[in-house]
UniProtKB/TrEMBL annotation:
Biased composition (Low complexity): 1-23
Record's protein name: (Atlantic silverside) hypothetical protein
Pfam family, one: SHIPPO-rpt
Annotated GO MF terms: cytoskeletal protein binding
Length: 125
């Protein structure tokens, strides 16, 4: 037999890692002078950074806001006391008989919407 090996004894080359295929992106790019992106040379924050003294943490202030307010109507035996609520003024209009039902409904609906809106806004203002 001959001394010839079917396997070569040359040093084996290792498979390159994924980092060797792509350039290192973690390093800052050095741009040639005069070729900076738009407004990248100006300082981002003109004022000093905020400190803990400027921004209080949780529990360092008392908030006095009342939450979950509800409109309460003046009641009498479980139903609204209509004599104490604002009422729609009586009007006398000349209207065709066929249009009167629609006119009354429109006026009453608008009045009720306005009354409810005023009652809700009176909770906050």
């Amino acid at each position: 037999m001959s001394n010839c090996n079917s396997y070569s004894t040359s040093p084996q080359s290792a498979t390159p890692s994924p980092q060797q295929y792509q350039p290192d992106q973690s390093k800052l790019k050095v741009l040639p002078p005069g070729k900076f992106p738009f407004s990248s040379t100006t300082q981002r924050f003109q004022c000093a950074p905020c400190t803990a003294r400027d921004t209080p943490g949780p529990g360092s202030y008392a908030q006095e806001a009342v939450r979950n307010r509800k409109v309460s109507w003046p009641m009498r035996f479980g139903s609204p006391d209509w004599s104490r609520l604002p009422q729609l003024q009586k009007k006398s209009l000349r209207v065709k008989v066929s249009d009167i039902h629609q006119l009354i409904l429109t006026d009453e609906r608008e009045f009720q919407k306005r009354r409810n809106r005023l009652a809700y806004l009176s909770l906050y203002y």
